[in-house]
Design a protein that fits this description.
Layout lengths: L11 E3 L4 E3 L1 H18 L8 E5 L4 H12 L3 E8 L3 H18 L3 E5 H4 L5 H8 L3 H20 L2 E3 L4 H13 L3 H6 L3 E2 L8 E2 L7 H10 L16 H15 L3 H12 L11 E2 L6 E2 L5 H10 L1
Parallel strand pairs: 3-4, 3-6, 4-5, 6-8
Antiparallel strand pairs: 1-2, 7-8, 9-10
Helix pairs in contact: 1-9, 2-9, 7-10, 7-11
The chain binds Fe4 H S5 and zinc ion.
The site of zinc ion has 8 residues, from α12.
């Protein structure tokens, strides 16, 4: 098996593109896919300051590496969720990555906002699944840090993540979610701009990129991720991909061509009475959780 670009020994076969690539050309390939996403979906301008949300996993650390390599001004944002050893190990991976490259990272700790409680304790006290609380808290903190610092927030969602989310949204015809499922969300009052530069890169391509680039990411998954429906959707899409290579990419890219059809009027938002960030009620979900816990 020879690399299509340089003729060296290939390490990866990408059926969706019908090509084989060696390690070096694979890195160039992923870089070009990211540049294509940035260009096609107008994700970033040259002088944007980019806050990269990093978890310590392969996608987010590779995204940081890629954006830095493409010459963007970046800073990392790590949110320590208070999920035992998993959070401590992922924090170490992020700090080590930043140290090796002399990059700056901002750290937020869930425990600092909730009287020393992390996601597992909050989930028990509030009788809500850890992931629904965690998702809400992460979104709130990421937006707050990005908005207050004037950053564009970049997250490491890859093609598999986006196609699985799309499948879930389509199965239930969640119009509101479909309207917002975009590689770029524009900034508005109380919201930082949000971009997903890895949407054209598959999970497998990103894993190969991280390994080829010598990125030391944590392999360990969050202990609460098992059994998530998104994993079932990813599995189904992989079966489809096996049968018909390129279908994941077609499913997602063709959706983006008609996504505007779902964008109707925006829901009216008002400032949260406690923190001032936009919400649909009197208090935002973050402040409501705080209030419930204080009772
Ligand atoms: S939501 Fe759930 Fe993830 Fe939070 S609790 Fe873990 S699995 S980290 S992407
Ligand atoms: Zn609030």
């Amino acid at each position: 098996m020879r690399c299509r670009m340089c003729g060296q020994r290939a390490v990866l076969r990408l059926k969706a593109y019908n090509i084989n690539l060696c390690q070096e050309c694979l890195k160039k390939f992923v870089r070009r896919r990211v540049q294509k996403a940035i260009r096609d979906y107008r994700l970033l301008k040259r002088d944007d300051r980019v806050l990269v949300a990093v978890s310590g996993g392969k996608d987010s650390l590779s995204l940081w590496d890629l954006l830095q390599g493409l010459g963007y001004r970046t800073k990392g944002l790590y949110i320590h969720l208070g999920i035992g050893e998993y959070s401590d190990r992922s924090e170490r991976a992020v700090l080590e990555f930043a140290r090796q490259r002399n990059l700056e990272v901002h750290i937020e700790r869930v425990r600092d906002h909730f009287d020393g409680l992390g996601i597992p304790e909050l989930s028990r006290l509030d009788h809500r699944p850890p992931c629904s609380l965690c998702g809400m808290i992460k979104r709130y903190l990421m937006n707050k840090v990005a908005y207050e610092g004037g950053w564009t927030l970049a997250t490491g969602h890859n093609l598999d993540d986006e196609a699985a989310a799309l499948l879930g949204n389509v199965l239930d015809w969640k119009e509101g979610y479909l309207a917002r499922q975009s590689p770029r969300l524009e900034p508005r009052e109380g919201f930082a701009a949000r971009v997903k530069p890895l949407v054209l890169c598959s999970e497998r391509e990103m894993a190969a990129y991280a390994i080829s680039s010598g990125i030391q990411y944590i392999l360990e998954e969050c202990p609460f991720s098992h059994g998530a429906t998104s994993l079932l959707y990813k599995d189904l899409l992989n079966q489809l991909e096996e049968h018909s290579p390129g279908s994941k990419l077609r499913f997602y890219q063709n959706f983006l061509k008609i996504a505007h059809l779902f964008r109707t009027e925006q829901v009216q938002l008002t400032p949260c009475q406690n923190c001032g960030y936009p919400t649909t009620g009197d208090l935002c979900n973050f402040c409501r959780l705080k209030e419930r816990l204080s009772r």
